[in-house]
């Protein structure tokens, strides 16, 4: 008889005491993310059958063509988070500016802000390759009782109280941390329940997978080029295996399980890299560090980077600790 797996709901309740601000609010917030993830999962799974693939027709503030699923996922997460009367503000990849949310009882006592990448890996939606959702949660820094401010969102990654992602792949998983390790839950679609399937996830300190869009190789800093050559050399454990899905969530998830490094360096086309600090890099960095991995911009710890804009981009390397340290050595030695 297989031991009964713990559901996500049970796990959240059981572990909320471990959270230093434990008041049950964060648990309800995580539960609303769980609910929205199920709704989006349902739509992702039937992409191709219903009119949910392809461009939506609008572009977001970053000049990217929004996909229909980007907009759908954005709407579902914002609706669910707003209705639950827990957050005082939301920022999203698909929203130009942050959304201030008045609490239903109008006294604005809600303490949390959420930053979200509703659909990560948008270029993979139409081709049936796994995509995800990324979220990052902070306590507001401005006093409750007043509308949320930009400074409530522009906090360093080290101030995150929780972060996670949903991967809509061969199975749908929700993986998150509240600063007490990383746990993964798999959705049983038959009954719509997430079960604890991957307790205490950790990055192997070393790995043999490197994930980077080599199509941009000519454009990379010298240090990154040298590191990629190092990965491809015949020496000891090397050459490493090249794996790049093109969905940050999916590449990160695989590398966390098997050991590996993900890189999105800067280049002339992306002078600050492509990925967004607040709702892609910081949450993945928090998860990586909580899973014994590491994340930086090649020099500075990602979670120490001082945010200046809602949609700012940063160079990003993340994964098995010894692999990221090795890349940083190459950046120190060969630079840009
Ligand atoms: O196609 P490229 O330039 O390699 O970029 C792929 C990267 O861009 C992203 O798709 C950016 O995320 P969005 O899809 O949320 O905009 C990452 O998931 C992925 O790692
Ligand atoms: Mg993304
Ligand atoms: Mg996105």
UniProtKB/TrEMBL annotation:
Keyword Transmembrane helix attributed: no
Gene3D superfamilies: 3.40.190.80, Fructose-1,6-Bisphosphatase, subunit A, domain 1 (3.30.540.10)
Enzyme class: hydrolase
Residues that bind Mg(2+) 2: 117, 120, 280
UniProt EC number: 3.1.3.11
Superkingdom field: Bacteria
A Pfam family reported for this protein in Swiss-Prot or TrEMBL: FBPase_C
Subcellular location per the Swiss-Prot or TrEMBL entry: Cytoplasm
Chain ranges of the Fructose-1-6-bisphosphatase class 1 C-terminal domain: 204-332
SUPFAM superfamilies cross-referenced by the UniProt entry: Carbohydrate phosphatase
Record keywords, A-Z: Carbohydrate metabolism, Cytoplasm, Hydrolase, Magnesium, Metal-binding
Transmembrane segments: none
Cofactor binding annotation: Binds 2 magnesium ions per subunit.
Reactions that this protein is recorded to catalyse: beta-D-fructose 1,6-bisphosphate + H2O = beta-D-fructose 6-phosphate + phosphate
Pathway terms, separated by semicolons: Carbohydrate biosynthesis; Calvin cycle
InterPro entries: FBPase_C_dom (IPR044015), FBPase_class-1 (IPR000146), FBPase_N (IPR033391), FBPtase (IPR028343), Fructose_bisphosphatase_AS (IPR020548)
Family of this protein: Belongs to the FBPase class 1 family.
Subunit text: Homotetramer.
HAMAP family cross-referenced by the UniProt entry: FBPase_class1
PANTHER family from the UniProt entry: FRUCTOSE-1,6-BISPHOSPHATASE-RELATED, SEDOHEPTULOSE-1,7-BISPHOSPHATASE, CHLOROPLASTIC
Name recorded for this polypeptide: Fructose-1,6-bisphosphatase class 1
